[in-house]
Amino acid sequence: MADYRQMWADLNMDLEKHDVLCEVLPEAFGGVFLSQEKRPEGMDFYDFVVSEIHGVRPSELIEHQKQGGKVFGTFCVYVPDEVVFAAGGIAAGLCGGSQFWVPGGEKVLPINTCALIKASVGARLDKTCPFFQIPDMYVGETTCDGKKKAWEILAGEVPFHVIDIPQMKRDKDIAAFEGEIMEFIQIVEKVTGNKVTPEKLGQGIKLINEKRRALQRLYNARKATPVPISGKDALLVTQIAFYDDPARCAQMANRLAEELEQRISQQEGVFPADAVRIMVSGTPMAIPNWKIHHLVETAGAAVVVEEACTGTRYFENLVDESGQTLEEQVRALAERYMKTNCACFTPNPGRIDDIIRMAKEYKVDGIIDVNLQFCNLYSTESYLVKQALAEQNLPSIHIETDYSEQDYEQLRTRIEAFLEMLRK
Ligand code: BJ8
After folding, report:
1. Number of H helices and number of E strands within the chain?
2. How far apart are CA 77 and CA 54, in angstroms?
3. pLDDT tens sequence across 67-81
4. Distance 292 CA to ligand 1 centre (A)
5. Which tens digit of pLDDT belongs to each residue from 176-190?
6. Which of 128, 260, 293, 373 could bond 228 through an S-S bridge, CB–CB 3.0 to 4.6 Å?
7. Is the minimum distance from the CB of 310 to ligand 1 under 6 angstroms?
8. Would you say the CB of residue 372 lies under 6 angstroms from ligand 1?
């Protein structure tokens, strides 16, 4: 990695503690990713991004700030990035996916809080992640109780705006979300000093839709047999998409998808054609959380799709681009975002329909429903998911885990037993 120490010092980071993270990450990444065989060449960009993970994108964000631009740190796929880019700002996803940050979060949060929240709070309070140091504003949402209360702690650190996400999907809820987006526009205009005009918002909508189309194309390639890319690599692409420049993200994902399409035409895969195909569903897997994918794929099966926010929930459904006025565009945004099926909604049959539909589209043999320990939403919903999958004769297992390595061997045994059952 190039030398970014001065930049990190300027960001008021705890350099000593951060060094510990910088030491372990390359080895962890090498063992999990670079050891894979037949990787697509297009993964070279993503390997580079990881090798410079706390350097290259943070320095771009800082450069943007030096030019007078603003950076918004976000935590959820319900935050409409389109608005931020329309105002000349940059939105960057912030979710923490490493156990390294968890103890820092546990200093201030109840132990029975999910690892994603603990890691996000810990990364900021411990000052060990440049992405958490850079933003001019954090944008949170009211999806789960753990997040809602964590925002109050983080608001003591960074200016904070909370978007109220409805808990149901009736017409009046979608209308309420429209109101939230309108308010968000005003906040973003105030922070950036730039007006969000219909023309600018139209451009923002197109920009983010292009990113979604590229990721959709990439995931489409994963429907092929043999599968042309590992689940780990595809997950990495989605994880990086959260904070990369959206235009570059689309360009790189399209480049990779093109290579995969060529592989498909030559029947080339990273796993044998008869490899067991797995869907991972459930809570998001923020970078560098690759635990379940690594366990599945080192056992010889392929993860072919993620029904998660670090998966299909991030990019399915486009925003209608035909709106001419701000009101029409905001309506289109609200309608698109309210199609996303997070377990924070009640009832939430759309998520179960998605899982069943995708199980067919991606020809999966079994589903691993993964829940971050202490996430009540997904954990409770897993009961209905399991029931619906059994009715469809789709084999599944439910896993509760966190970011630590403690349950690794136990999970390996369970996953291998599940795969063995699918192979019979
Ligand atoms: S849209 S999944 S990104 S809220 S795992 S913090 S829900 S206790 S992350 Fe999420 Fe938005 Fe929903 Fe997606 Fe709470 Fe559960 Fe933790 Fe979670």
Report:
1. 19, 8
2. 22
3. 999 999 999 999 999
4. 18
5. 999 999 999 999 999
6. 260
7. no
8. yes
